[in-house]
Amino acid sequence: YAKAQNNQYQLYSPELAVLEAEKQLMQSQLALALERQEFQVYYQPQVNLITGRIIGAEALLRWNHPTHGLINPDVFLANAEDPATELAIGRWALETACRQATVWQSAMALPLRLAINVSTHQFQQENLVTTVTNTLQQTGLSADVLVLELTEACAMSAVELTVLKLKELKAIGVQIALDDFGTGFSSLNYLKRFPLDSLKIDKSFIQNMMTDTDDAAIAKMIIAVGQSLQLKVIAEGVETVAQFNFLRQSGCHAMQGSLFSTPLSGTELQELLAADKRF
Ligand code: C2E
Ligand code: CA
Ligand code: CA
Ligand code: CA
């Protein structure tokens, strides 16, 4: 028994300690990484279900770490310990993505939407509206192209503030998507007070949809909620044709996921657009 305990210690604790140490090291490198331009924005196409055409892209941040390679934001951004740096990275991502979108725009003359994730911390900043306005001005991107993705949890954490802030954002002409919808606790009463344009079904519901009838029911319910509130519904994490067919038959508007494309560099997406790629 003692040996088993010892083994367990040997197996788990040092690894956990390494992980913890590595995470802390990463946190301490974030500011330097920004300075050294190690961050990149990738873009995942969003596909209209009826036309099969790319109608937009979600900007997804990556850290091209000198020794670890490409790191996803869940690892370094979700628990960022330096709030000022986290905000600076968010501003950088917004500006970079908007600049990229103007390049697509002038090359294609296509109304391609650019969706970007806004963290709860970013959303709570008093100057968020000013930051967005200034970024649009500096990059020359038209406001109606930009979609800000706000998680359900963020929107619900201070409902009155959310209503005010979303109204301000809508007033400058940007669109709002409610992200990770269904993972939190929205009441329809609040939902109808938010000036939203779209709902995003979280990939956690899509993943097991074909075997888990609860997940399938939730996905259908979200689509029905969207229909009754006249919102577009976008599913994320679509990986199989079966999921695609189910969602299309249920009335979903758009999808993103590895079935269509993983996140791409700005240039790679531009090549798909130039080829008028249909899915
Ligand atoms: P999210 O907003 O829910 O983004 C969707 C995530 O699903 C992305 O993970 C995307 O790469 C992944 N995904 C897309 N299609 C598939 C698929 O078919 N299968 C699977 N298994 N996954 C798929 P990613 O890029 O790792 O981003 C994770 C989260 O980090 C995002 O979740 C978002 O909350 C956050 N994030 C990403 N970029 C930014 C950013 O610039 N600013 C902020 N504040 N948060 C960001
Ligand atoms: Ca998102
Ligand atoms: Ca819910
Ligand atoms: Ca999600």
UniProtKB/TrEMBL annotation:
The keyword Disulfide bond does not apply. Residues 23-277 form the EAL domain. Keywords: Phosphoprotein. This is EAL domain-containing protein. It comes from Stenomitos frigidus AS-A4.
